[in-house]
Fold each of these.
Amino acid sequence: MTAKPGQGPAHFEALFNQAPCGYLVTDDGGRITAVNDTFASWTGYSRSHLLGSRLQSLMPVGDQILYSTHCIPQLGINGAVSEIAVEIIGAEGERRAALLSASRSPASDAKPAVVRVIIFSAHERRIYEKELVAALRAAEESESRRAEAEKELQHLALHDALTGLPNRAGLKSELDQHLAGGIAGAGRLAVLFIDLDHFKAVNDSLGHAAGDELLVAVAQRLASAAAGTSTVARLSGDEFVVADTFAGPTEATGLAAGLLEVLRTPMQIEGLEIVTSASIGVAVAEAAGETLEDLIRRADIAMYRAKELGRSRWELHEPAESDPTVDRLRALGELRRGIREGALRVHYQPRIDLRTGRTSGVEALVRWQHPTRGLLPPSEFITMAEESGLVRPLGAWVLGETLRQADNWRGEGPGGASLEFAVNLSARQLNDPELVLMVEAALRLRSIDPALLLLEITETALMADPAAALKSLTALKDLGVGLAVDDFGTGYSSLTYLKKFPIDELKIDRSFINGLGSDSGDSAIVGSCIDLAHAVGIRAVAEGVETLAQVQALTAMGCDLAQGFHFARPLPAPLLKEWLDASAGGEPARA
Ligand code: C2E
Ligand code: CA
Ligand code: CA
């Protein structure tokens, strides 16, 4: 490979000689092995005279000592550049002040150590120093400009452009500073989550400029009302947060009340007098380690409640209260909409009479056709529906829809009889004082014989409050509907209650059916459940039957009804109808 133009050794040699300062290379002892023209003409010595002589010999004795004791030892450190001001004695005996800058490459395998020396004359040295100072100053200036620009960027990143308040990131950083610097008073960290009421209406009716003006005015009011150590931030849109340490919840909600008051005073926006209000959620740190984000989330939940309870008020988030995440609230909203807009479905799973092999009825099992997540099983939403109370409208819908289907399928049962329809009831529905009226109305609407309806209630729900359950069951029984204890074996019902409850059926829990045949314990349990049911004069039903062996074992033990994937999965109404038609004609049902 050939050297590119400008890179060959000849060019370096020319540069070496032309340089405006003296260049020398010496060995460790100071003996000169290379020297440039500039140094030669500067001192008046010929290059041949200089080569081989010692650099120190060109210095007065004091400088020789300085060079040897001060400059050279520093060069031992690899890469270090050592600088020293000395005098160089020229060929005519004249002394010239010079700045000497030396660096050293240590010896390696074949090569001895070399010391490279640059020598500036005093005049050059002044230029050098001037340039150095100028360069240093320029560097300093650009550094401070850079720092300023960085500060500005940082400010932009941490603040909201419209109101100038810290944003979410800024809130965290300010709060961290306050807490670390002990500026925030002692006490517990608390967050006030403030959301303007009906801000969208202002924005929509008066325009964005007015909306912005309102936000700026609100920001100013909050900032001056919450003055002191509090950090006021704007999270987004019309959401603000005030964070500080407080002695306790009373102090924090006191500030919330004060802020509500301040916001209620009318504002002048674009020449109009606007009255605004806000809903505030308050959360106070309980446990150590509760982060700002935790508190914001809890305060947000409390804020939602303040909205639901009529707005223009504050609500305190109690750490002990059930803690639905914002996601959960969204899911609840979706479910509420789903119920209203017809996104629920009922699938039907056949119940087989083990003595005849015929389908005697179906169990209605709800599904939710979710707009984005697809068809959801009840495990995804029943608990949420129960906890929120949505299970009442949901349950009423399932019952209504099932009885509509029962009306359609009149006479589709064995030998032209009608099928029996089992519908699940939740604990929450059981305690609903309107339950009986609701069931009665649903039956009447479709003129369905109450005896064709079987309501399933889990053993756990019944035993939660047996006395109350007994009352509800008795009222339902009076309507003439059938009652089943679902998931039997998983709760702790006493025989006393089983005898007292006006029930018609025990549904043995799927987990025991699973082990039938393989687990002798399970087989024994299933056997005694069947016996128990028969002893109190009611039917035994097995659910979750998946194999022929299970069917045979159940038949041998005298189980009355069975249900499970072995026969059919829960199916949408049209498919179930097909299945019924296919398995009719006296043939025992098969999967
Ligand atoms: P469940 O009342 O015990 O319903 C039986 C569950 O077992 C159903 O699950 C059914 O699909 C499943 N299953 C049936 N046969 C087999 C089988 O052979 N093997 C297995 N592994 N599973 C089988 P699903 O439909 O997911 O319903 C789950 C639970 O949701 C139900 O348990 C019931 O407690 C509740 N649920 C369903 N619909 C409603 C409703 O309308 N209202 C209320 N309150 N709860 C409902
Ligand atoms: Ca059930
Ligand atoms: Ca069950």
Amino acid sequence: MGPTDLEGFQEARDLLASADTVSVLSGAGVSAESGVPTFRGEDGLWKSYQPEQLATPHAFRRDSRLVWEWYDWRRGKIRECRPNPGHEALARFALGARDVRIVTQNVDGLHEEAARTVAGGSDADPAMPLELHGSIFRVKCTSCTYRVPHRDPIPTESFDDLPKCPVCGSLLRPDVVWFGESLDAGVLSEAFRVAQSAQVCLVVGTSALVHPAASVPLATRDGGGEIVEVNPTETPLTPLASVSLRGASGEVLPSLLDGLE
Ligand code: APR
Ligand code: ZN
């Protein structure tokens, strides 16, 4: 059985084919086939810590070395990962004739890498994602406005090794949004604006448990549009979706979006 045999496949294709404006909301599932560990589920554990115990301002204040060690481990894993056919299909779709905007909860940079690869030498901007939760390959100062791309390993042997701000000397931290923190207001309002005006919101690989990101597709419904979901399992968004395709994004998206560029 291939992706085109999935229940609802044709309905999902028809919805996307007749939409001029599409917003995409992606989550960790879109990168699962690239080998990036998801947060929830079997491989979501690191040394028996839950992400909720590490990805918080409180955890960083209590033990910044431990939190940086976890991030350095995740950064190392993600550096070895390449975009999969799901990222690439989304990038081709976004670079095509339709008005498509990719909104992602992922911090792994794989949508961006796929955009550049698929665009080749030409303009990759239309396929560049709005990153709701920041980027794991940027660091920012815990005190001042210093913020910079950073891909290399972080030394985490002792507190003194941790990276410090070259401007004010304070501790640097990953430029990601932690539990209990606010999302960047500009990025968030842009995501809701895009979703509100979209005829279809394509929701891929998210458990839809973390808000406000999980509310983005609701804006599409409020604006009179429809939700198409791609996820192997049911989520809180499933009852609101016009159609849910129960498959892996790396397999489903290339067929689903083929010819809709
Ligand atoms: N294709 C599509 N979906 C998949 C695949 C796949 N190959 N594999 C797993 N999934 C689905 C799972 O069924 C699950 O619903 O991806 C989802 C992953 O859920 P989470 O791990 O909760 O990831 P996400 O929804 O992105 O988490 C949201 O939580 O920890 C925070 O900030 C972090 O951005 C993250 C946010
Ligand atoms: Zn600083």
